[in-house]
Amino acid sequence: MRSDKYIELRVEPMVCFYQSRLPGYYRKVTVGTVILLVGALTGTFLAFLDADEWTAVATAVTSGVTAWMAFTGTKGKISRCAYACSRCRLDCPADYSAMSDSNTVDKVLEKVLWWRSLSPVDRASGTNQQLLVTTCEEFFERENEAWLSTSADKKPQEEAKDEDGSKQRSGDK
Q: pTM for the full model?
């Protein structure tokens, strides 16, 4: 496969996929932050009114939202996939400009910019073609691993429990 086709068929769709997830993540962070602010203000107001029972309820709700936000890792997801597709003139359906730049999408776009800056002779080099594909695929693999790790690694934990349980059961017999 030619490298230009690789960019068109693999890199652009992956970048657009990560970019398309941003609006939902921003919405979750915004709602969570608003709930935290309202909860903190409500707790303060209720404490001022000496409504101790209701202050505890407001504090519990606020703590629950804080834990949920930390568990879902939404801010980390935003920082990993945020940056404009248009920065590299990739044809994505949306423009998410002025966002974080320390992430996978930014690294991939920089690699595409590097590729497009090469002369036709350098683009024909098998070494440069392999470097483009290998580097982009490494970025995508790391991104995929990061996405999977934010789902709390439930599957490995469940498998470990199943293995321990089956060992104990067989040892009990």
A: 0.55
